[in-house]
Amino acid sequence: QMIRFFELKKVLFGAEKLAKDIVFQDLSADDKKCLEEGSCQLLVDAINRSVILFLPGLRSLVPVESEARAQFYLEMRTVRKSEETQRKGIIAIIYAVAEYQDRKKGVGASVFARLATCLPIPVHGIHMCCDDFKEYVILRVGIPLLPAFVRAKFRVHFGTHMEVQYALRGFGIPAGSIPVSPTNSAPLLQNHFAWYLQAAFEDNRAHPTIQKNQSPRPTGFMGVSPAELMVRRPGEKLKNETRVTPLPGDILFG
């Protein structure tokens, strides 16, 4: 598996990155756009395991290679930053319900399958959520054909947003953890945007020499740079603060 991992890393980022961690500055503009738009996100379940959530309906209209590089960065950064993830592994959720069905109709599936088999991350559960009955039947028929070690981890959940999220509760995924509005099914990306800004800020600070001629500002999240991300209590004005109106990236603690 490690040989496959380094072969994939070479294809995605080049031979010069084989012995180095992939950091935010290694991503192209398309990679960052894909990462920012939230089709692949990091969550945490009830026992503090890392959950990688895929929302195919939010896939960015960029080359599949950029999607693969963004996913590689997110998953490997999660492993690098969390000893818990290294010990407990991850849970994967593919959430293709209603408007979150794959907007690219499966384009790049083989690339993502290769990514899943090459990354040195133990996957302890795979949950496929859908509301397309034909897709559900195909998945149910196909499960017995999977290798035994994959079949034991694979679960399919069919139904509405409420029904599949209720089913996930039985596997330790807390109610409300899927970032989808319960009223209008709109994506709730505030936590993901905060993660994105934090990742950019920490990598820029840890690798300042890489960012020559590069802007630390995110590619599109309302023009908020990582340096402008602030932590405060509601109504509190920080020392030497010149702006009053909170920005979308601010984190408020009550």
Overview of this structure, please?
It is a single chain. With 254 residues, the chain is α/β, with parallel strands linked by helices. It is built from nine helices and seven strands; from the N terminus they run ααββααβαβααβααββ. Helix content is 37%, strand content 13%. The strands form two sheets. A five-stranded mixed beta sheet has the order 1-2-3-4-5, sandwiched between helices. A two-stranded parallel ribbon has the order 6-7. α1 crosses α5 and α2 packs across α3. The longest helix is centred in the first third of the chain and has 18 residues, at 64-81. The protein starts with a helix and ends with a strand.
User: Looking across the biggest beta sheet, what order are the strands in?
Assistant: 1-2-3-4-5
Based on CA inertia axes, which overall geometry fits?
globular
Task: Detail the poorly predicted runs.
Answer: 211-254
What percent of the residues sit in helical stretches (DSSP H or I)?
25-40%
> What order do the helices and strands follow?
HHEEHHEHEHHEHHEE
By secondary-structure content and strand pairing, the structural class works out as: alpha/beta
Largest sheet: 5 strands, mixed
Could you tell me the number of beta strands?
Answer: 7
Average pLDDT: 83
Percent strand equals: 5-15%
Ends distance: 46 Å
Distinct helical segment count? 9
Rg, Å, rounded: 19 Å
In short:
The protein is α/β, with parallel strands linked by helices and 254 residues long. Helices cover 37% and strands 13% of the residues. The N and C termini lie far apart (46 Å).
